[in-house]
Design goal:
By secondary structure, the chain is an alpha/beta fold. The chain is built from eleven helices and 17 strands. The chain has helices spanning 19-33, 44-49, 101-106, 117-126, 138-149, 174-195, 210-219, 232-245, 283-295, 315-333, 365-368, and strands spanning 6-11, 36-40, 61-64, 108-110, 113-114, 131-136, 154-158, 198-203, 222-224, 251-256, 268-269, 279-280, 299-304, 339-344, 347-352, 369-370, 375-376. The radius of gyration is 23 Å and the shape is elongated.
Length: 398
């Protein structure tokens, strides 16, 4: 009897609104095309920790169908759960319990460091996956590229509120983050005005300032981005002038978490995650403290980070999520492998997966940001895509 083809799907890294819409749309379209779908729980951890056997390991794998995915697009998060598992740099304490010491030793790459890529490849083969759909940001996509280079039939979908994946102008989660940030800032304007304060809002953006820039764009605010170090004294002068000119006597600035002033430094705190990332000290708290000390102005810091990734997707994110999923299924239907769904020149497209180590996409400061006023650029937008920043031209690979 002919075997029913099977698709696997996973979500990795941080959650964002829209992930469940991708999962549901992949499942619904897959059933139309005659595929079974297996959900891989907790991202790459599901493929490192699944127990071998003839049936599906219920702790790490979940069959998906139209019934158990029918309503998931009405909520945020990911019904498959997620993790920040770096399968190439795992510690002994994080290895799957069923892995033998001998097998673990064969994958050891350093002192208490293990690369479980061979195990992931074996598990993909044992699941008889005809295609794998991976949804994630830089870390998830970089390992997706490793799997593609190893011959795994894979289609990737970019998601991150930072909107900084190479090769695409849009990532799932970005619009919801901007929509939510705008709502939160507009609500807090009344408190800032009531107390005649200067607000400093911290927002996502460790290496790229898209979230800060676009939130400033829709709130008519000033913003600080990692790509452009700022002058601390000049910033304070502008904010004090803004407050003086505002009938409600308040001002505010939006600071990406990776923003820094010229000659300054922001310490990193806490333990590094599986990919070596540590939290940066809160730039909003640092700036508010510096402003009080240097100018005597009443300044207050506000955190706009995890609230932005919670809850349901806005309409744009849901539309893109549904469409990305269906473009991915179009590619699978047509036998296309090793590509990433993308927005390019404002249109749905597909492109190469980002090369590992390439780093995030960043803002073109010369066209998108006014370094003297610390504001987005609003003029000369004719010919730009709807999201204003185009992805670089695709380089053809041999």
């Amino acid at each position: 009897m002919e075997r029913t083809p099977r698709i696997g799907i996973l979500t990795g890294g941080g959650d964002v609104p829209g992930l469940n819409s991708v999962i549901k749309s992949v499942v619904y379209r897959s059933t139309e095309l005659g595929y079974d779908v297996v959900g891989i729980r907790r991202g790459w951890q599901g493929l490192t920790h699944m127990r071998p056997g003839t049936g599906l390991d219920g702790d790490n794998l979940r069959p998906l169908d139209r019934i158990n995915t029918r309503t998931i697009d009405r909520t945020g998060g990911t019904m498959l759960h997620t993790s920040r598992t770096n399968r190439r740099k795992m510690r002994r304490s994080t290895l799957p319990a069923h892995l033998s010491a001998e097998r673990a030793e064969s994958m050891r790459t350093g002192e208490d460091l293990y690369d479980l890529t061979p195990l992931v490849l074996e598990n993909i083969e044992s699941l008889a996956l005809d295609d794998l759909v991976t949804i994630g940001g830089d870390d998830t996509l970089s390992f997706s590229r490793v799997l593609v280079d190893a011959g795994v039939p894979l289609i990737a979908i970019p998601k991150t509120m930072d909107n900084d994946v190479q090769g695409t102008e849009y990532c799932i989660g970005f619009s919801s983050a901007i929509t939510r940030a705008k709502e939160l800032i507009n609500r807090q304007r009344t408190t800032l005005g009531s107390h005649e304060r200067i607000g400093v809002f911290r927002i996502f953006g460790r290496d790229a300032g898209f979230t800060a820039l676009y939130t400033a764009y829709v709130t008519s605010g000033r913003c600080l981005i990692p790509e452009a170090p700022f002058d601390l004294g000049h910033l304070f002068e502008l904010l004090i002038e803004d407050k003086r000119n505002n009938p409600s006597r308040y001002a505010f600035v939006i600071a990406a978490e990776g923003a820094i002033w010229t000659g300054g430094a922001i310490a990193e705190t806490g333990e590094a995650d599986a990919f070596g990332h540590r939290h940066k000290a809160n730039i909003a708290e640092v700036l508010a403290s510096e402003m009080k000390a240097r100018t005597g102005e009443d300044a207050v810091a506000s955190e706009l980070t995890y609230d932005l990734r919670s809850g349901e997707a806005d309409s744009l994110d849901q539309m893109v999520a549904i469409t990305f999923a269906n473009v991915a299924m179009d590619l699978i239907r047509d036998g296309v492998k090793g590509r990433m769904v993308a927005i390019r020149d404002g249109k749905y497209a597909h492109t190469h997966l980002p090369e590992p180590g390439l780093g995030p996409r960043t803002i073109d400061v010369s066209t998108a940001y006014d370094m003297n006023r610390y504001r987005p650029t609003y003029d000369n937008r004719l010919g730009h895509p709807i999201l204003l920043t185009a992805a670089p031209a695709e380089v053809t690979e041999d």
